[in-house]
């Protein structure tokens, strides 16, 4: 499942290649991928110039000059590509936005993904407005993280996945963040000390920075220390990595480096 670093790369791609282009037409092959009837969708976007691209968590947003915004949710395996023409295979491509210069933006393999259109002034009332601060661009300081998580009796693994508290972190990076912070996945938010919150903040920032660095051309891939490594040996202490079920997700951790806390 793509997480924040993957979607940040999509944002950068769109910022590099698409800004300033004006939409001339919209082809919707899969109506389930849009939130209004296809003809209305086209009316909403045609004539709009792509002015601004930004990201909140795992959503990428395109603001158009005509007062509407597109919320791009690529879900699992969705892709967006700028091509020289709108020509496409309707079985593979769910939405095509063609530009006045002849080029076109193709959305492939959306499956459960979608590209919804909303008035820009209305975004705060959409799912964008229900997201917490972005874990990369708006990462709170240790005190801010304490405000977000410090009163909760829920497990940190579950709290990190709650997009309404802080957004962009999924199953993979939450495991890596907790490993780096030395926190057992079941540690409750209210059991973290001020030092723990400082360590957690560093772990979030550093893990996302490493993950983004690994996306750069020619860079070695991101190597998880615990995620998906059940029974392999911890790279720090040599203890076998353990997997446990928690809040309907799996958490991977090192029992030695991430010991359980004695709850208050
Ligand atoms: Zn270890």
Word description of this protein:
With 264 residues, the chain is of the alpha+beta class. It folds into two domains: 4-130, MutM-like, N-terminal (N-terminal domain of MutM-like DNA repair proteins), CATH 3.20.190; 142-253, Helicase, Ruva Protein, domain 3 (Orthogonal Bundle), CATH 1.10.8. Helix content is 25%, strand content 22%. The protein is built from six helices and ten strands. α5 crosses α6 (194-213). The model has no long low-confidence stretch (mean pLDDT 95).
Give the oligomeric state. Answer: single chain
Count of all domains = 2
Give the strand order of the largest sheet, numbering strands 1, 2, ... along the chain: 1-6-7-5
CATH class category of the largest domain: Alpha Beta
Q: Provide the CATH superfamily of the largest domain.
A: MutM-like, N-terminal
Low-confidence stretches: none
Beta percentage is: 15-25%
Rg, rounded, reads 21 Å
Q: Helix count? A: 6
Shape descriptor reads elongated
Number of strands: 10
Average of per-residue pLDDT values: 95
Bound molecules: zinc ion
Briefly note the CATH topology name of the largest domain.
N-terminal domain of MutM-like DNA repair proteins
Q: Please state the second-level CATH architecture of the largest domain.
A: Alpha-Beta Barrel
| Distance separating the two termini | 35 Å
**Helix and strand element order:** HEHEEEEEEEHHHHEE
